[in-house]
Amino acid sequence: xxxxxxxxxxxxxxxxxxxxxxxxxxxxxxxxxxxxxxxxxxxxxxxxxxxxxxxxxxxxxxxxxxxxxxxxxxxxxxxxxxxxxxxxxxxxxxxxxxxxxxxxxxxxxxxxxxxxxxxxxxxxxxxxxxxxxxxxxxxxxxxxxxxxxxxxxxxxxxxxxxxxxxxxxxxxxxxxxxxxxxxxxxxxxxxxxxxxxxxxxxxxxxxxxxxxxxxxxxxxxxxxxxxxxxxxxxxxxxxxxxxxxxxxxxxxxxxxxxxxxxxxxxxxxxxxxxxxxxxxxxxxxxxxxxxxxxxxxxxxxxxxxxxxxxxxxxxxxxxxxxxxxxxxxxxxxxxxxxxxxxxxxxxxxxxxxxxxxxxxxxxxxxxxxxxxxxxxxxxxxxxxxxxxxxxxxxxxxxxxxxxxxxxxxxxxxxxxxxxxxxxxxxxxxxxxxxxxxxxxxxxxxxxxxxxxxxxxxxxxxxxxxxxxxxxx
Length: 472
Prior knowledge:
Elements lengths: L20 H17 L4 E8 L2 E12 L4 E2 L6 E2 L4 H14 L21 H6 L2 H5 L19 H8 L17 H15 L3 H13 L8 H4 L26 H4 L2 E2 L1 H12 L13 H7 L4 E2 L9 E2 L4 E5 L2 E9 L4 E7 L4 E7 L4 H17 L23 E5 L2 E8 L2 E8 L11 E10 L2 E4 L8 E7 L5 E5 L2 E4 L3
Antiparallel strand pairs: 1-2, 1-11, 2-3, 4-5, 6-7, 7-8, 8-9, 9-10, 10-11, 12-13, 13-14, 14-15, 15-16, 16-17, 17-18, 18-19
Helix pairs in contact: 2-6, 5-6
């Protein structure tokens, strides 16, 4: 294959040997077909059912330009699935009495200074792991490669504006997890990357899970392919300060080993206790409703996103880095967990196609999908929605054109340096009053846009799991 040729999706699948070879072979072919349809350069899939990995396969290319094929042992960036790992360690420390879920963080991290006194004195671990702190979550600052990167990052939070009052709503918050990582470092005296090894990687027996690039590059590693058509990114990963929010790299099998521990009430296969059953259950218990219940899930637990499909409980998390997307869902009632790791193209479309088939086949359930435009006219007063909605790294202007609402979406601030495109325009298609959907170029799913107000009457737009206030 030449560097500029299309990857052959069908000849890079790597079936496992043993009793699961049948399902693996079948899904190797199916995953190759679906990945090609959704223009995904490389995909890595594993399925855990009734305590056994019954499917483990990879297709396509880990790096198209370098001609590196994807295998089941290839490390992909799992992105924000890392947040659940960080939360798990926090919950273990809470059990040990080192931390408290509802105590102000400033009580254990006295140097903490946030944008206002109410936030500084009131924010707790519960706020951080449920994305309800109000700290603007898309603050990405490169504070260097040193072991003090999270300490330096935390010092910068004093100048980061709040995008909603403490506890007033849910807004996805990367910065809050970097802060959480710093709290864990402070109370244990162990740097976050090493703490993950001590508390999770080693007890779980993980040998292909790492965060630092020099550790990842000991293995075959995938690179992201953002853009359309997908092409290798010149920047492989995010800055080290984003670690607790999204820098873990792993394989689907090892992600499922982590998930199985949660399914087993916090205990590993060899009987090692990571968490108590009570803490594992608490993480899977709804803590806050999501203003947009259509995109990821209806509620957030402690770290986990929560949903239900055909009456079956679902918990999991997604991850997105520079051109890489990760998906993990657990259906405990069916003793089923699925992990898909990808590196570009219509990853959301591939996720929906793969998971819907597997969930129907193995759990007898229909996966919930996002709404589509209403087939009948919806009475919409554009004046209710027109205006400017803005927070750090995002400016969204809603305008009216011939009776149709259009969103002018601009990526600003530090995030603009990581985005492949900073300005886009989307038509908003009504579903019902207050709920619209849009479709991004090259992607299959419709994405919700929810308009709502807080208790104090402030107007907000919720999209991409973020709450953005109306400013004009």
